[in-house]
Amino acid sequence: MLELKNISKDYKVGNGTFRALNDVSLKFRKGEFVAILGHSGCGKTTTLNIIGGLDRYTEGDLIINGTSTESFTERDWDAYRNNSVGFVFQSYNLINHLTVLDNVELGLTLSGVNKTERRARAIEVLTKVGLEGHLYKKPTLLSGGEMQRVAIARALVNNPDIMLADEPTGALDSKTAREILTLIKEISKDKLVIMVTHEAKYAEEYASRTIQLLDGEIIEDDDEYHGSEDETGYVANKTAMSFLMALKLSFNNLRTKKFRTTITALASSIGIIGVGLVLSISNGFSGILDDLESDQLVGLPIMITEGEAMFMGPPGLAEMNEGPTANEENEIVVNDPDDYTHVNIITTDFVDYLDLMDSSFYTTIQYNYGYQPQLLIEVDGVSKTINNRDINFSSYITPEDELDEYYELLIGDFPSNPYEVTLLVKDGNIVDIDVIETLGFDPDSTITYDDIIGLNLYVARNNDYYLESNDLFIPQFAHLDTVLANGIELTITGIVQMIDETISIGGDNGIYYLYSLEEELIKLNTASDICVAQSATNISVLNGETLTDDQLFNTLSYLGCNDTIPRMINIYSDSVDNKTEIKDYIALYNTNLLDDDQIIELDLAETIGDTMGTIISMISIVLSAFASISLVVSSVMIGIIIYISVLERTKEIGIIRSLGGRKKDISRVFNAESIIIGAFAGVLGVTITFLLTFPINILAANYEETLTGVAQVNVLHLLALVVISTVLTFIGGYIPSRMAAKKNPVEALRVE
Ligand code: ADP
Q1: Model confidence pLDDT, tens digit, residues 517-563
Q2: CA-166 nearest atom, ligand 1
Q3: What is the reported pLDDT for 311?
């Protein structure tokens, strides 16, 4: 059934070769118990390894059941070792981190036998060798004889035709040795057993045939066999280890090194924690921003301003938003903002369109007509005009009944009618010198709240202030006392401060009035002489110059005569959804209009949110990039750990290969190991990340209330991180596991 035909084996030694076997021809039959004898170094193990397919012959042929092995592939040899040969070694070669039962099952696993049958057959052979009481022990707890029995059981479990034993009794006392030899002899009844030994007495006593080797040649064969058996040719089932088994082998191995595995996983989880925290904080921030937009910023109006709409445009205008193309040579590039900015022209059409908007979308619409009232003040008995800009005379940008949501009252009352105004101070009661001086105070003196409350300002009536003379209207600077005395009195009733200056618009200090003041004043003005006169001509009634349409419109607005076309529209709404409805409604207005006629609104809340969102994403990207470096470091580390593991488990590699494991199976075992570490590190990392979000949130909330819930994990991110960790460590462990697969099985087995 097995024939060695003129086999020679050369080993490479230095530059030359060493011939370990020289022209060996042998025939074996079933039921033989062959002992190969000879002194150390004569080539016994080499012969056995060649017969067992662990090593390749250099010349000659090995014939199995009449089939030449000359054209055997690596896989054929693996299958042959697994199906047809069982090895027993002097040093047992058991895998110490697997139980007795698992050790025996290993060979069956490689040939793809299912679990139940595997278990049954392993228990059956273990019972046969007398080890039924030790199934679940680790081999290290057994005696030498018992370990050799396990090895024999493992060699037999696949029911091979050939059992090869290399000095099986070499490490045993003579009593145990005899027990083992008796067992082997029993086995040889229906198998071919070839045993290498250097003890002639055992050979004589137990073997049915003895072959003597000397320096790689046969010098004696006491039962040479020349006949031929019924040789039907040889086909072996291909082997393959399941990935699950690879996982189990690695898992058990890692379990014996719990401390090292945990430290490794912990170290490589640091990168995961870093990235995880950055992601959850950026996630939490986005949440806070959304809340901000819907809670606090929702009060900011959608603004439609006449003139340049600089912030954003509809998709059709996007390409226009690029500035001029730079010239790097010596040519001057002309910059014309009209080329790339949109100018809103508010028309009565648009105002009419807005009037038709579903009133449930908004809470208030404010129209601003660009009136600059002429203000006066009496300081030390003298009436003076005021430059509106010096006191920042502006209307509140909030609905009139929601002032208290955005402003904190420091003293006095919020305005209850259009003729009551307030002084807005910056945080810490800070007010610009222009405001103070204009209100008539000495900036070096001490000014208290009480000094300001009750102060009066006066709006000049057009008919008092502008008097006609030769078709021109002349401001009555010489009669300011009269103008002031007849003026409309405004009283400062309170001092206020922005609640949150960071989201303020129009949050500068100065005198702030209710939107309805302008409405009231314009009502009074439209009938004034100057308005009537200016409305009737395009010649300026102030200086006699001819005005363009734009200039005329500006003059009318400035004088408070314009009550038809607003210069600015503020639309207030109570939810982000409604704001979207409003924007959609405006977009609908634009659909069939030329670009120039379109109206582009500004949603400050969205702009602020977007800007902050962009900043946060940028910061997150930078931080994640830093954290990712540690991910790379950890995958290199895993590579090193796997490399060490390969060195440590060289013997195991040899054992698996001797049982018919393919190179692929070996790399699977180590890949499985890195996958386990990677997944473990990933799970550890995301768990720690999740746990860390609690203290971070508590600290953040203590530091700044708006930061409550700043760290929020996203389950998808966490899952992705586990996958990334697994993939990275797999990559890190890939090269060492390939190295493991390439190891020569004979050399691997020799490692202690
Ligand atoms: P035995 O089992 O009879 O003690 P071996 O079969 O192990 O002898 O070795 C036969 C000869 O081949 C020895 O001289 C040994 O040094 C040599 N040899 C074995 N393996 C190798 C190898 N991989 N490289 C070089 N020489 C080897």
Answers
A1: 999 999 998 889 999 999 999 999 998 899 999 899 999 999 999 98
A2: 2
A3: 41
Which atom number of ligand 1 is nearest to the Cα of residue 38? Answer: 3
Q: Which of 8, 13, 18, 47 to mutate to test the pocket of ligand 1 (most atoms within 8 A of CB)?
A: 18
CA of 176 to the centre of ligand 1 (A): 28
Ligand 1 atom showing the smallest separation from residue 13 Cα: 25
Q: What CA–CA distance (Å, rounded) separates 78 from 406?
A: 80
Which letter does DSSP use for residue 197 in this model? -
Write out the two tokens for 469.
């003379």
Which atom of ligand 1 lies nearest, measured to the CA of 48? 6
CA distance 660 to 656: 7
Pairing of strands 302-305, 602-603: antiparallel
CA 22 from centre of chain: 63
Regarding whether 677 and 530 lie in a shared domain, the answer is no
Q: Is residue 12 part of a domain?
A: yes
Atom of ligand 1 nearest to the CA of 196: 2
Q: How far is the CA of 74 from the centre of ligand 1 (A)?
A: 22
Residue whose CB lies within 8 A of the most ligand 1 atoms, among 8, 9, 11, 48, for a mutation test: 11
Round to whole Å and give the CA distance between 563 and 582. 24
Which pLDDT score, from 0 to 100, does residue 319 have? 42
For the stretch 417-472, pLDDT in tens is 999 999 999 888 999 999 999 999 999 999 999 999 999 999 999 999 999 988 89
In this structure, the answer to whether residues 409 and 516 fall within a common structural domain is yes
In a domain, 189, yes or no: yes
Same domain membership, residue 284 and residue 228? no
Among protein residues, the one whose CA lies closest to atom 5 of ligand 1: 43
Q: What is the pLDDT of residue 66?
A: 87
Give the span between the Cα atoms of 110 and 722, in whole angstroms: 30
Gap from CA of 587 to ligand 1 centroid (Å) = 88
| HEC letters along 451-520 | HHCCCEEEECCHHHHEEEECCEEEECHHHHHHHHHHCEEEEEEEEEEECCHHHCCCCCCEEEECHHHHHH
CA of 305 from ligand 1 middle (Å) equals: 95
Counting from 1 in the atom list of ligand 1, the atom nearest the Cα of 43 is 6
Let me know whether 263 and 233 are in one domain.
no
Write the residue with the smallest CA distance to atom 1 of ligand 1: 41
Q: How many CB atoms lie within 10 A of CB 621?
A: 11
CATH number of residue 135's parent domain = 3.40.50.300
In this structure, are 118 and 174 located in the same domain?
yes
Co-location of 213 and 83 in the same domain: yes
226 alpha carbon to ligand 1 midpoint, in Å? 28
As for how many domains the chain has, the answer is 3
Statement to judge: residues 192 and 268 lie in one domain: no
Give the chain's residues under pLDDT 70.
227-231, 308-323, 338-339, 502-507, 752
Name the residue range of residue 461's domain.
370-564
- pLDDT in the model for residue 582: 93
Top mutation candidate among 45, 57, 211 for ligand 1, by most atoms within 8 Å of CB: 45
Could you tell which of 39, 40, 42 is best to mutate to test the pocket of ligand 1, judged by most ligand atoms within 8 Å of the CB? 42
Closest CA to 165 of 28, 3, 35: 35
Domain stop point among 197, 214, 238: 238
Q: Which residues contact ligand 1 via a Cβ below 6 A?
A: 11, 13, 18, 20, 38, 40-46
Q: How far is the CA of 750 from the centre of ligand 1 (A)?
A: 11
Same domain, 540 and 640: no
Q: What is the pLDDT of residue 313?
A: 38
**Run of H or E including 265:** helix 258-295
